[in-house]
Design goal:
Layout lengths: L2 H12 L7 E8 L3 E8 L6 E8 L6 E7 L16 H10 L5 H11 L2 H5 L9 H12 L8 H11 L4 E4 L9 E3 L2 H8 L3 E2 L25 E2 L2
Antiparallel strand pairs: 1-2, 2-3, 3-4, 5-6, 7-8
Helix pairs in contact: 2-5, 3-5
Length: about 220
């Protein structure tokens, strides 16, 4: 089953059971509809049979959920895997929210009663949000290696990327500026440059402490 159909089945499933964390295992597609078998991600909890039957007289379908137990058995808190359109939606949201801010948004929107029953819903670990954020930022990369990617990028952004060191060199070096920026600097008597090189902006490429130093610059 595609991730999109899985998401749709989970949405319908939650209308009758919003406590269990559904994982769909097997499926059987027939002319009459679809039959799926799933389990709750909580160990020793329920097993489910989901039946989607087509109605011949209209475009609607009848959805039935069967389980092997009446009560759930949850220990701890779990959520579903983030795939398909739901993952793509998260990537889009990462364009406007830092990873931890996005996680906080889902925490604020979560249902306390649902959390109490062991279903985290859309709340996921820090690592998941950082990974999705990385996927979103690197989706247009032309190479996995940042240095090689900068070389490719230089060909299309020569107006701003003036120099990129050889990817095989020990340290990575690049000059990024525009003519407009230089024109502004020429009009200034004193220039103070503040560099933000936090982990979210620049990844470390060397352990050489001499690489990071401060100095005063003036126009001449």
């Amino acid at each position: 089953i595609s991730d999109e159909i899985n998401d749709l089945l989970r949405e319908m499933f939650e209308t009758v059971n919003n406590s269990c964390v559904l994982t769909i295992k097997n499926k059987n597609i027939t002319k009459k509809g679809l039959t799926c078998y799933g389990i709750c991600r909580h160990e020793s909890c329920k097993q489910f049979k989901l039946i989607v039957e087509k109605k011949t007289n209209d475009a609607c379908a009848h959805f039935t959920v069967l389980s092997n137990s009446l009560d759930y058995s949850h220990c701890g808190k779990l959520t579903t895997f983030l795939r398909g359109k739901r993952r793509e939606k998260q990537k889009q949201m990462c364009m406007y929210y830092p990873p931890m801010n996005l996680r906080q948004e889902y925490i604020l929107k979560s249902s306390p009663s649902k959390l109490k029953r062991g279903n985290l819903g859309d709340i996921r670990s820090d690592r998941v949000y950082y990974k999705i954020n990385h996927e979103q930022k690197s989706q247009h990369d032309q190479a996995a290696d940042d240095r090689v990617d900068m070389h490719f990028l230089k060909e299309t952004c020569q107006e701003y990327i003036k120099y990129v060191s050889d990817p095989k060199s020990k340290d990575f070096e690049t000059y990024l500026f525009s003519q407009e920026q230089l024109d502004v600097l020429k009009k200034m008597e004193r220039v103070e440059i503040h560099v933000d090189a936090t982990g979210g902006v620049v990844r470390a490429t060397t352990a050489d402490p001499a690489l990071f130093k401060t100095d005063n610059y003036s126009n001449s």
